[in-house]
Design a protein that fits this description.
With about 450 residues, this protein is an alpha/beta fold. The chain folds into two domains: about 120 residues, D-Maltodextrin-Binding Protein, domain 2 (3-Layer(aba) Sandwich); about 300 residues, Metallo-dependent phosphatases (Purple Acid Phosphatase, chain A, domain 2), CATH 3.60.21.10. The protein has 14 helices and 21 strands. Helix 10 packs parallel to helix 11. The longest helix is centred in the C-terminal third of the chain and has 14 residues. It is globular. The two termini are about 40 Å apart.
């Protein structure tokens, strides 16, 4: 398990308030310094812009030519930092396109919005390579970015059962995860939406629509380093209350926090509140829209059934505390074999945002679905299978998980990592051609153009 509360990186303190980048010789990444008296500025682009990296020279030329604009709060400092021959064009961040496939803009980290992706500079991405990141500008106050950021990864459907279970009978957890684990890395928080309880006597080969997982195969979650387990799924009660209870206790013994389900209606509906690296608090809430398998905790244990009233009550209670800065709402919607959301998905997701949720992520989708920018909030309608055996059509092989970064109590980056389930039923990063197919299916400009 990764430690949540504390980063162990140490940043050197600089006496000088300005670290200049020489126009004629770009600073080698190995010599870059992270200053405490400066703030990072970032190059942003839309999800539809495929260019993930710019060089310093490309950035300078873009700013000097007016092809790349910046926000007014950093214009003078950016001019000094990059030794620009003319001041860059400035414009409000809200005027930068959320769907343009070629444009870039520069802004401060404090202005960053999650409808844009951060672009690497000279191969260094601020959120991933802070110690080698070059683009810092002087600031009048001291900052400690070793504690300011919490990394969080959110994954799709996990069900280690049926043919996946048969594969695990022949592989160690490390072998099963060999392809995907490097892509996951070691975030401060890792989310798993697990739909299956443990039962050692289960027979994977005979399973159809009632699922179970052998206890030894739950080691996959340990090997990945799962921190948060979502229990909104449809199949956790397939083999009865005792396996569900034993599995729930196993999560507790392993230090994995749960939400969206529990051993009582009260426990199922309780938010999970986590303290981030900077001491701020975020809350995870989970719901099941339809409960098609009788899996909801209406009277005893199970998933947290969705209703407008319960959702509003939960969010209102979190808001009234005064110390919750961010609310992640996860919903097991009714399943649909479509890249676009159903009318029910759209209604519930927007209702949750209207009530105060900061992001909504669908947990049900066996194939990936599009995402939307609504009232300054992101909605991911479904991100597909993460670890499940379905390979019978291309849609269920495709998926993505979200690499996220909390900064000052809010997620400012949702970076999709695209995956593809091979014939061996081991999760793996999608190759270039499959990545483009997924992007074509789920990157829909009409959902990102309006924030209303």
């Amino acid at each position: 398990m990764r430690a949540l509360l504390i980063f162990t990186l140490a940043f050197p303190f600089l006496i000088s308030c300005e670290t200049s980048i020489n126009r004629n010789s770009e600073t080698p990444a190995s010599k870059a310094i992270t200053p405490n008296d400066s703030i990072p500025v970032v190059i942003i682009r839309s999800y539809f812009n495929r260019i993930e990296n710019l060089t310093l020279d490309e950035l300078r030329m873009g700013l000097e030519s007016g092809r790349i604009a910046c926000t007014s709060d950093i214009a003078d400092r950016l001019t000094t930092k990059l030794q620009l021959e003319k001041s860059p064009v400035t414009k409000p961040l809200g005027e930068f396109s959320r769907v343009d496939s070629t444009s870039f803009m520069v802004t401060s980290i404090d202005s960053l919005k999650p409808c844009y992706l951060v672009t690497s500079l000279n191969g260094s991405h601020f959120f991933k390579d802070r110690l080698t990141y070059l683009l810092w500008v002087a600031d009048s106050t001291s900052h400690d970015y070793s504690k300011a950021i919490t990394s969080y990864t959110h994954t799709g459907v996990t069900a280690l059962t049926r043919r996946t279970g048969s594969v695990l009978n022949t592989l160690t957890p490390g072998q099963y995860l060999e392809l995907i684990k490097p892509e996951i890395g070691s975030p401060d928080l890792l989310h798993i939406s697990n739909e299956v309880s443990m039962l050692d006597l289960c027979d994977y080969g005979s399973m159809k629509m009632k699922f179970a997982t052998k206890s030894e195969h739950f080691r996959v979650l340990e090997e990945l380093g799962a921190d948060l387990v979502e229990l909104t799924g449809n199949h956790n009660l397939d083999v009865g209350t005792e396996p569900y209870t034993n599995t729930f206790k196993w999560y507790q013994e392993k230090g994995m926090k749960t939400f969206g389900g529990g051993l009582s209606p009260e426990e199922a509906g309780a938010p999970l509140i986590m303290t981030l690296n900077d001491g701020r608090k975020a809350a995870w809430i989970g719901f099941n829209e339809i409960c098609p398998c009788g899996e909801c905790a209406d009277k005893t244990m199970g998933s947290n059934r969705y209703s407008d009233a319960s959702a509003k009550s939960t969010i209102d209670a979190l808001k009234s505390r005064g110390d919750i800065e961010y609310i992640l709402a996860c919903v097991q919607f009714g399943e649909s074999d479509s890249y676009v959301p159903t009318s029910s998905q759209k209604r519930i997701s927007k209702y949750l945002v209207d009530c105060g949720a900061d992001v909504v992520i669908g947990s049900q989708a066996h194939q990936p679905q599009t995402f939307e920018w609504y009232k300054e909030r992101m909605i991911f309608y479904g991100i597909g299978n993460f670890m499940f055996d379905q390979i019978h059509r291309i849609g269920v092989r495709q998926a993505y998980f979200l690499e996220c970064y909390f900064y000052k109590g809010r997620i400012v980056q949702f970076i999709p990592h695209f995956t593809f389930m091979g014939d061996d039923r081991r999760p793996a990063p999608a190759n270039a051609s499959n990545t483009e197919l997924i992007k074509k299916a789920v990157y829909l400009p009409s959902y990102m153009q309006s924030s209303k």
